[in-house]
């Protein structure tokens, strides 16, 4: 197989695993895009040859792919980053470049009590449900900085505690929304069940918000902690992306290998 030039849309733990796997098994050049310097640092440490650490517009992606003659576009962005997935599908189609979507499997929650989980389709709906049914205690937001604004349309600031990466972009978003510094919970990777329980108890939380982000996102540990402390979980369901062709989706590294080899 020839040396592969790979354009990787990253910013997730999945993308780091992909970088390491490809570098161990293929002669390759990998350019990884992330939206933050922190994500870029992790990609370089994982073995990516180069990175771009900023959000990219459709035109940016087109220009980069044309300039360096990439062989394949691998989209390993977060399951909830639907906009970039829609964009990458259309770009790959436009440029006639092979496209692979690496999508972590949904969580099955086997042997876990799911009676405390309330499913909604959006973060604004999550805020509405909390204001109507779970407004007694504080709210733990375990769903990233970019989703806070929609929740806060219906949840008071004084009850809102987000767990976020302490990077400049996220902290600025908190500041812009009026979230006090002592309400910000620093995050370093997925938390354990015990860490989640401690937070729930210390902050007198009555509800947590999370995404259906799969096992790698620590969602199981969140639900277990909620069950042990008898609080509600508002779970935002994954967006359905109609542009995605199922045959282009892989969910593990073995499937990724098969897909790459089918192209080359």
Automatic annotation (TrEMBL):
One of its GO terms (molecular function) is precorrin-6A reductase activity. It is an enzyme of class 1 (oxidoreductase). Pathway: Cofactor biosynthesis; adenosylcobalamin biosynthesis. Pfam families: CbiJ. Its EC number is 1.3.1.54. One of its GO terms (biological process) is cobalamin biosynthetic process. Keywords: Cobalamin biosynthesis, Oxidoreductase. PROSITE patterns: COBK_CBIJ. PANTHER family: COBALT-PRECORRIN-6A REDUCTASE (PTHR36925). This is Precorrin-6A reductase.
